[in-house]
Amino acid sequence: MHVQRPDTLFFATEPYTDDFPAVVHPFSQFKELAVSEQITDVYCVFLNLVISLLGACTLPDGTHMPGSNPYLDIRSFLIERQIRLHTTLYPGGGLVQDTRSEYLDIVASHCSTVFTNIEDVLIKMKSSIYQPVVVNTKLYNYAARTWSSPIQLVFCAFNYPRKGFPLLVQAYNLLNSDDFHLHIVGDWESQLGYFINKRITFHGLLAPEQLKTLYQSCHVFINCSISDHMALDGFPTTAAVDAMATGCLLVTTNPRNDQLILKEGIHYIKIDANVESLLSALYWIRDHLPKTRLIAAKGAKIIKSAFDMKKVVKAKLAHMLGKR
Fold it and tell me: Does the keyword Nucleus apply (predicted)?
């Protein structure tokens, strides 16, 4: 965004001091800068933030949007200044499986553009536009690798129940073979004791550059996500997209049966959320490495063409701003 529209101003409710190529202003300065800099459009991400900006955190029956903040309400100011509001509704950020449809109606009524990578939202909000999660393919670039044993598996996620870690543990403990080695990334220290199969390497939390290097040395990215009414994972997850871009084969559940871009058996291998299915997929990979390599290559190719950060941002800007 900063590169393609250098006139963009960035705001945060809680500014951090990490590296960023532009000044990040406190949200408290938004109205002042909107006037002095003649802001015409506002873009934000996540349902609970756009609902906060619209001052619609609580429905008439008292239902409150999780994570929303009524003190961020700028709706009347946006109307007064004729500033257009745009948003992307990603999983999380208030968007769960049982999100009240009234919230989606509010967003549809008051936003000029709504992007999403969730099929449920596309169905319920006819005006919404599909855009996938973005990947920095310059960082997570494709790297050729030798497809031979031991097959390097990688699991990368934060410690949430919906990530299906117990399924991974159960399956890997039965995978008593030197043909596989598992790398675990994330805050899973407290769960490592459940592994009987000790062919694992625990990396903890890794920076993006470190993740890239690990992905480029691995063959298979495993995602065991399960349905969880408290949260809604996108498909594929951001971590899975990053790994695929480097050339990892994605082995994954698909709880919502998302078929918007990736096709089962062509770009990834689909599993059910049970031990037998995961084991079967891993044994198939071991016994069919040439086919496995082909699926991984096709997966990497479609990630680069459809999920590339620059392409997605360019498409979003075209929808939001046209030729302005």
Answer: no
The pLDDT confidence band at residue 303, using thresholds 50, 70 and 90, is very high
Residue whose structure tokens are 């069919």: 288
Residues 44/36, Cβ–Cβ less than 8 Å: no
Cα–Cα distance for residue pair 178/114, rounded to 1 Å: 48
Q: What's phi and psi for 202, nearest 5 deg? A: -100, 125
1-46 pLDDT, tens digit each: 778 899 999 999 987 777 788 899 999 999 999 999 999 999 999 9
Task: Count the neighbouring beta carbons within 10 Å of the beta carbon of residue 90.
Answer: 20
Q: What are the tens digits of pLDDT across the range 174-209?
A: 997 899 999 999 999 999 999 999 999 999 999 999
Asked whether the beta carbons of 204 and 260 are under 8 A apart, the reply is: no
Alpha carbon distance 1, 273 (integer Å)? 37
Q: How far is Cα 315 from Cα 300, in angstroms, rounded to an integer?
A: 21
What whole-number distance in Å separates Cα of residue 13 and Cα of residue 69? 10
Dist. CA 18–CA 10, nearest whole Å: 14
pTM: 0.85
Who's near 215: CB < 8 A, 6+ residues apart?
Answer: 140, 154, 221, 242, 243, 246, 247, 248
Distances (CA, A) of 19 to 24, 133, 141, 206: 10, 22, 22, 17
247: left (phi over 0), alpha (psi -120 to 50) or beta: left
Distance between CA atoms of 10 and 43, rounded to whole angstroms?
A: 10
Cα 261 vs. chain centroid, distance in angstroms?
A: 14
State how far the Cα of 260 lies from the Cα of 306, in Å rounded to an integer. 11
